[in-house]
Design a protein that fits this description.
Blueprint (H helix, E strand, L loop, with lengths): L12 H10 L1 H21 L4 E10 L16 H12 L2 H11 L11 H12 E7 L5 E11 L2 H58 L8 H51 L22 H13 L7 H27 L6 H6 L18 H47 L1 H40 L5 E6 L12 H27 L23 H7 L1 H10 L1
Antiparallel strand pairs: 1-3, 1-4, 2-3
Helix pairs in contact: 1-13, 2-13, 3-6, 6-12, 7-8, 7-11, 8-9, 14-15
Length: 543
């Protein structure tokens, strides 16, 4: 008789143990068979080998303070850009075709699927981690395949592609930077030339009115004012000399008239004529004196080496020489003074009545001398008139120059404001041009450094080696896992069989408080048939 439990079956540890023990042969058989089958499958899987190469980012050989690199790209960005080039479809397809990869998959998969498998499955490029956990300046290239020699060759080839691509990219960036700076430099040069031309035209147009010429303008204005004052003084002196000469001319003309009348009157009995000294009321100025006045005025305006100074000095020397000769000739023409002893010896009958012995009788020489004096005085007056006219013309010129320079000085604030705008733009363009010129020289040095492979570059720190052991599949691990899975499957199968029978495996499955009177084994019909009459008796007794 089968006894149904009154309560739901609970998975008691003893029940589980009883289940396993009752089906121990089944559990063992299923576990062994499943494990052997899984092992057979696992060991038939193809071996997968993995080759790796570590590429190090080598720093710049030349110190930054001497040559600064124009390529400022981080490793992550540079690696992403280079990966797009190296792992492009064309590059990978070339590697697949040249090395005969994926021969078994070519008839089953499309070329795009094969490229995707190689790019996203078999090939990997990862950044290395430093000791502190941060990313270091290195990255790892790995490839997996069935042939160890082929995977090592693929990694070596891709590593070379990365190194060449990095060199080309850095060189292109350096050349691009240099060309860009060169273009900017040409534009800055054109702008600077245009502003230099504008500034030069402005300086040429307003030459003499520029702010930096203020000192020269003030000096010229002061010099013109001093020249104007010297000219005024010279005009005053010339006018005074003219008045003196006019008075001398009047006296000389009066003396000439009296001498001419005396010579035209009847002559008295010849007597010894006593020459009376003739004293001029006012001495006429000489030519040398006039030249000295001009020389003094010129020395106030010019230096000693000026042609005008030299000319006046030559005229002064010539005038002094001529005056010395004239004085010597006049001294020779002058009659000797009368002898007082002879005058005393003259008897009274020899002197006619009405004749003043104190007065000298005029002679023809006196007439000639008076005429020469009149002529000389008139000539000197004419010279003074010319000088005064020249001085007046020079005064007008000086006044005109003073007005012009004063106008320039008055326009200095406006010119300074205009020059400030032109100079500011010019200095800005000049500073920009110098800065670009320095940058161009630095860019050219950086370009030469990149071409000479002296800048930052990729170097192989750990080249790819031919792997000796496969990385996949891990047969021992997979076999152990298959064995555990087979054991779990057989245990589950034993539990399933017992649960479907729904029998009580022991008193521990009964609720607490139920008394156990005895244990009767389970008697099945097959067991009764095998036992015969004895079995029937047992069955009856058990009932």
């Amino acid at each position: 008789m089968t006894v149904k439990p009154a309560v739901p079956v609970q998975f008691h540890p003893l029940s589980l143990t009883r289940m396993v023990w009752k089906h121990k042969l089944l559990v063992a058989l299923v576990t062994v068979v499943a494990t052997l089958a899984a092992a057979a499958v696992i060991y038939r899987l193809p071996a997968v080998y993995r080759a790796e190469a570590v590429v190090l980012v080598d720093s710049q050989k030349i110190p930054e303070k001497f040559v600064a690199s124009t390529v400022q790209v981080g490793l992550q960005d540079s690696l992403n850009a280079i990966s797009q080039q190296v792992l492009s479809s064309g590059q990978l397809q070339n590697i697949i075709d040249s090395m005969g990869l994926y021969q078994s998959e070519r008839g089953k998969k499309t070329p795009e699927e094969i490229l995707d498998r190689m790019r996203n499955g078999d090939l990997s490029v990862t950044l290395e981690r430093g000791l502190s956990g941060a990313r270091s300046g290195a990255f790892r290239i790995a490839y997996e395949g069935s042939d160890p020699k082929v995977v090592a060759e693929v990694v070596t080839r891709i590593t070379d592609l990365f190194i060449r691509a990095n060199f080309q990219n850095r060189e292109q960036r350096a050349v691009g930077t240099s060309e860009f700076i060169d273009l900017q430099l040409k534009q800055a040069k054109q702008t600077l030339d245009r502003q230099e031309s504008s500034l030069s035209q402005y300086k040429t147009r307003f030459n003499g009115e520029l702010p930096q010429q203020e000192g020269a303008l003030q000096g010229a204005l002061n010099r013109l004012q001093a020249e104007f004052q010297a000219n005024e003084d010279a005009i005053n002196r010339a006018q005074q000399n003219k008045i003196l000469l006019q008075n001398s001319l009047q006296m000389a003309e009066a003396s000439l008239t009296s001498t001419a009348r005396a010579l035209a009157a009847p002559k008295p009995r010849p007597v010894t004529r006593v020459q009376a000294p003739v004293v001029a009321a006012v001495a006429a100025p000489r030519s040398s004196d006039l030249i000295r006045v001009k020389l003094a005025a010129a020395e106030g305006r010019y230096t000693d080496g000026h042609p005008e100074i030299k000319r006046l000095k030559a005229e002064l020397n010539r005038a002094l020489s001529e005056e010395a000769q004239s004085d010597a000739a006049e001294k020779n023409r002058r009659p000797a003074p009368a002898d007082p002893a002879r005058l005393a010896a003259i008897t009274p009958p020899e002197i006619p009545e009405g004749v003043d012995l104190g007065a000298a009788l005029p002679t023809q020489a006196d007439l000639v001398r008076d005429r020469e004096r009149v002529t000389t005085t008139r000539t000197q007056i004419e010279l003074l008139d010319r000088e005064i006219a020249n001085r007046n013309a020079e005064r007008q010129r000086i006044q005109h120059d003073i007005a012009g320079y004063q106008g320039r000085v008055d326009s200095l604030p406006l010119r300074e404001q205009q020059m400030l705008g032109l100079t500011r733009d010019y200095e800005t363009s000049k500073a920009n041009y110098r800065s670009l010129l320095d940058k161009k020289m630095s860019a050219e040095m950086a370009e030469d450094m990149e071409r000479g492979n002296q800048s930052e570059r990729f170097t192989v720190a750990d080249p790819a080696h031919v792997p000796s052991t496969p990385v996949k599949p891990r047969r021992l691990t997979y076999t152990a896992a298959a064995a555990l899975l087979a054991l779990a499957l057989s245990l589950g199968l034993a539990m399933f069989i017992e649960l479907r029978r729904g029998v009580v495996l022991g008193e521990w499955e009964l609720p607490s408080g139920y008394p156990v009177l005895g244990r009767i084994g389970c008697i099945t019909p097959s067991a009764l048939a095998d036992a015969g009459p004895r079995g029937t008796g047992l069955t009856a007794g058990a009932s």
